[in-house]
Specification:
single chain; 177 residues; Lipocalin; eleven-stranded antiparallel beta sheet
């Protein structure tokens, strides 16, 4: 009959220590994603200056974000002095990162999100494929969202990239309303 080896208290402590390290590293990866929900007013002074676009708009711009465990929806409203706001068509993404089709335009498009490893930075990806002179070309818009430590400032970096137009990144700053 073979005898079983006795486990020493020292070995038990070592095994528990390794288990705790593994458990804590798994909880970091399972961290709940940052919630970007809220109304955010565009800060023209601290954003990139564009020749055309939001920085040259003579009014107030509000970005509304609605986020739950399944979807993230973005809508932008432009307010001119003395007029009602004009809201652009909202854009919705699956929070899980699954790719979804967007049939709102003439050309086919797909969209999805990615999260940083620590779930604090969100990037939305929108890829439209258009046929130009019989050749299919992709037009990418990738927007990265980051919150300040006090959650009162939202900074986005919007990358637009295509073979036709090249590559351009625009930084926009928003203040919590």
């Amino acid at each position: 009959m073979k005898s079983c080896k006795q486990i020493t208290p020292n070995e038990i402590v070592k095994a528990m220590f390794i288990f705790l390290i593994l458990l804590s590293s798994m909880s970091v990866e399972a961290q709940i994603p940052t919630n970007f929900s809220g109304s955010w007013e565009y800060d023209k002074i601290n954003s990139d200056k564009e020749e055309r676009g939001d920085a040259s708009f003579d009014g107030t711009i509000v970005l509304d974000i609605k986020q739950d465990s399944e979807t993230i929806e973005f809508s932008t409203t432009y307010f001119m002095p003395g007029r009602e706001g004009k809201t652009l068509r909202p854009s919705s993404f699956l929070a899980s990162g699954e790719i979804s089709a967007d049939d709102s335009g003439i050309d086919p498009a797909k969209k999805y999100v990615t999260w940083s490893k620590d779930n604090t930075i969100l990037t939305t990806h929108y890829i439209m494929t258009a046929s130009i002179d019989g050749v299919a070309q992709d037009f990418l818009t990738a927007t990265t969202y980051k919150l300040s430590e006090d959650s009162k400032t939202l900074v986005t970096e919007e990358l637009k990239k295509s073979d036709l137009n090249g590559e351009k990144t625009i930084r926009k700053v928003y203040k919590k309303k």
